[in-house]
């Protein structure tokens, strides 16, 4: 599956309409971003049940600011409208596969309970 380009106009609909979204925050001038791109693209081919998306931080500065992106590339995973992972740096293929596997294995009911408990503090 090809990656989806996220903008401030389509971000909410893409994330809310899909239960599992990986988001790569990147910029064309960023060497590590260019290094990570083929790894990310290959993973999108292997996991065609997931949505792989990209945010160009130069073109979509509001989105980058909204998510407090300070270093690129940054990978974020959103499951059921909850950000369950966010980490800067270009991941090697094995690490990306591991992160995807861990995110797949999350009990989202437990994650939501943890989020609610944290919000009540």
Describe it.
- This protein has 121 residues and is α/β, with parallel strands linked by helices.
- The protein has a single domain (4-119), classed as Glutaredoxin, CATH 3.40.30.
- It contains 5 helices and 5 strands.
- It has helices at 11-17, 31-46, 61-66, 93-104, 108-119; strands at 4-5, 20-26, 51-56, 74-79, 82-88.
- The chain has a 5-stranded mixed β-sheet with strand order 1-3-2-4-5.
- The radius of gyration is 14 Å and the shape is globular.
- It starts with a strand and ends with a helix.
- The relative contact order is 0.19.
- Pfam families: Thioredoxin.
- It comes from Streptomyces sp. NBC_00003.
- The record marks 24 as: Deprotonates C-terminal active site Cys.
- Belongs to the thioredoxin family.
- The active site is at residues 30, 33.
How many domains is the backbone divided into?
A: 1
CATH architecture: 3-Layer(aba) Sandwich
* Uncertain spans: none
- Share of helix, binned: 40-55%
Average residue-wise pLDDT? 94
In the sheet with the most strands, the strands line up as 1-3-2-4-5
Shape: globular
Q: What's the number of helices?
A: 5
Strand/helix succession: EHEHEHEEHH
Report on the biggest sheet: 5 strands, mixed
Strand fraction:
15-25%
In total, how many beta strands?
5
If you consult CATH, what is the topology?
Glutaredoxin
CATH class term? Alpha Beta
CA-atom Rg in angstroms: 14 Å
Distance between the termini: 40 Å
CATH superfamily: Glutaredoxin
């Amino acid at each position: 599956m090809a990656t989806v380009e996220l903008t401030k106009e389509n971000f909410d609909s893409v994330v809310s309409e899909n239960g599992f979204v990986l988001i790569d925050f990147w910029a064309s001038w960023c060497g590590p971003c260019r290094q990570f791109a083929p790894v990310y693209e290959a993973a999108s081919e292997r996991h065609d049940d997931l949505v792989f998306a990209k945010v160009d931080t130069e073109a979509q500065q509001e989105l980058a600011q909204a998510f407090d992106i300070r270093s690129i590339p940054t990978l974020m995973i959103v499951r059921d409208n909850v950000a369950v992972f966010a980490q800067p740096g270009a991941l090697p293929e094995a690490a990306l596969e591991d992160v995807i596997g861990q995110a797949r294995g999350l009990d989202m009911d437990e994650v939501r309970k943890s989020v609610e408990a944290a919000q009540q503090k």
